[in-house]
Fold this sequence. Notes:
By secondary structure, the protein is of the alpha+beta class. Helices cover about 45% and strands about 10% of the residues. It has 2 domains: about 1-65, Arc Repressor Mutant, subunit A; about 80-155, Glutaredoxin (3-Layer(aba) Sandwich), CATH 3.40.30.10. A 5-stranded mixed β-sheet has the order 2-3-1-4-5, with helices on one face. A hairpin with a 5-residue loop joins strand 2 and strand 3. Helix 1 (about 5-20) packs antiparallel against helix 2 (about 25-40), helix 2 packs antiparallel against helix 3 (about 45-55) and helix 3 crosses helix 4. The structure holds FE2/S2 (inorganic) cluster (FES). The site of FE2/S2 (inorganic) cluster has 12 residues, from helix 5.
Amino acid sequence: MExxxxxxxxxxIEALIGLYPEKRSAAxxxxxxxxxxxxxxxxxxxxxxxxxxxxxxxxIFELVTxxxxxxxxxxxxxxxxVCRTLxxxxxxxxxxxxxxxxxxxxxxxxxxxxxxxxxEFVECLASCGTAPVVMVDEVLHEDVKLDKVEKWVAETxxxxxxxxx
Length: 165
Ligand code: FES
């Protein structure tokens, strides 16, 4: 597992562990770093983190299953996050998410069968004034209204094959 992490991630991990008087306190930050690097937390990562912190793997597994932000399966090539918090909800975020689910053929919280997209419904993306917003990987897309969704998908994912194509 260790060798598959980027060198910069390993450096950050070592630095983080050193910040805590009790190594076990670094568990959550380590999980975030590993997920950032690999995209998800695999069984090998759970065992590696546990060993690194002198814990039993079950202690790390419990964290991964308790917190919804941790993924246990790889994500798609494009990570699509639709905001579901108040401003976006009022501006149609729920229907936008439903429409994206149909267009991208991807369940909310899941990955499309072709591995292209992972679709998630997330809390505030800090752009409430331009609701509804959608984030694709690290890029924020503002004002993605329901009537613009088809056009937005065509522009944002030029290789996407629509039903009619
Ligand atoms: S409510 Fe959607 S970005 Fe804040």
